[in-house]
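Problem 12. The chain below contains 615 residues. Write out its predicted structure in token notation.
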Amino acid sequence: MSNVAYRAELETDSNTHDEHSPHPLDAANITDSSTPFVRETKGFTSVVSPRPLSTSKLSSIGWYTPAVIVGGFIGAMVIAIANYIYFYVIGGGGGRPIDEVGISQTWNTAFAQLLWWYLRRRSLPLEKVEALFQLIFGPLNLYQLGILKLVPLLWFFGLILLLVPLSASLPGGSLVVEQVARNATSAAPIPALDVDFRGNGSAADLFKYAMFSTMPDGEYKMPILEYSAIGKRSLLEGAYLTRTSPCGVNCSYDLQFAAPSLQCKDANPVSTAKLYFNTNLNDTYAQNGFYRASHYPHNPNFKRFNDLYEFVMVWAESDGQRQNATLRALNCVAMAATYNAHVNYTNSIQTITVGISNEKPLNATALFYPNLFYGEQRAKDGPNGIEYINPTYAHTKDELNALFNGCQLLSMVETLTEPLKGDAVYLGTDGYNRSSSLIQETPLTRAAYDEQTMDYTYMDYNLSPEILRDLMTNVFLSIFNDGQHLTSTSVTTETYRLSYVFKSPWRLIAVYAADLIVTAIFLLLGLIAMFQNGVAATPGGFLQILCTTTHEHGTLNRLARQACSGGKEGMSDHLKKLKVRFGEIVDMNEGLRFAAFGTEEETSLLVNKRAHGGM
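Solution.
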């Protein structure tokens, strides 16, 4: 029995050790504890006899660390595939495109295995050991190119630790961040135009909500000034007048309502002028830029052939050359129609698209009937509605509703036809003569200005059935946008949020594949290192530090006691430059051998299945 003292807790193990059982140091060809231990050092060979026993039993790898390495990688791969499917099928969404937490945990654990594999086999300056330990937490240590020279694999490992999360977060332009619309639909009150609305049904409210004015005897007269002004503004701008959004910055809704329309067709200018204007036209009228328009039955000398409300236009049209001018004519009929409008606001800018259906001619004979609302002008309001004083001018409820609706539509038509009504003709030295018509101030007119005479020498007009129909729609939509009657409808509101949009699937596949392949290679190296070490290392941890720095009488501990508790500034240059490795140490003062950090002279190579302290 050796005279070297052994730890009391190991005496039972040493006394009961079977001489035929394998010893933990069999890998070093040492079969008996009494066999002298030979350790080679630089420049000399020392013999220690007998060999002290180890203070620890065989360590094991366990299941946690391999599970972290393999499970983290599999989790990252599954999430990468799931993100690809998500962005491909759904087309966008918020969130990160890869599991950075899982893949970082996997990398850190694998890095720890390789680091301890190197620490067992290489003597490194202590400051480089410190930098290697910090690579996991502070990639700025990559600036120490001395690490690249000593252990290039670990330096590149640290670089990959930095690059993989970055590439996973920004996968090469395949997933771009854009504002993506999200729609929500709900019922909301929207201001609109209701041509049938008569307030509480009284005679007073009939005239209060009417869009037209009447003569003293109750006959229809003209649109009220408010709507005449809207019609003129729409004509001058060549578009409908918009309104501010009642539902938000980005929203849309659909409405259906009654409104007027115009059905126009080309006509013979000569016969039309003779029939409606009692004027005989010739080519001179075309070369003089003739224009005349009027609506009927306002002409008292015109004997109607039917009950249509007609608007007739005759004008000169050319390619800009007076000698090429020709005469054209249009005949338009006012219609009652149903409008289906889709109102959309994008960044608070309104656009309206309409569909027109159920068009029927307005009954002009009924609407221009003398004393049309004479009875309502003199009626009283009773508990059952309007009480007529003179039964001769009384209307049933349905009759009154129909007449009110027709006059409302007629007034909107005349907000267009009244400004266009009138005539214009070039009179030579007297220049252009015109009366009442607003058409010369609109985008419909093409005018030639002579700087010498300082006057317009020629005008022609850009008109067609389609243009007149669009003008009527623009004027009506301008009046529609002035409506204040609230109606409940389904409103779709768009909100925007930053989301990933799948722009280039192959870029995403390339980046994810590269990340996972590189990760798999380094993780495989980490697993190999772990099995060669025979014990699982952890990235940091107080117990690992405690179990690897227990050489009380070693050079490392002696120099460390002279240093500050933390920071490079508190360490001596000797301590920084001291080369250490993690190996097997024999402490003859206490008769122990164990695994710990020490100088190259104090340690021997520690390989798998040798007794050492846990990490």
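Discussion. The first strand starts at residue 37 and ends at 41. Students who got a different answer should revisit the alignment rule from Section 12.3.
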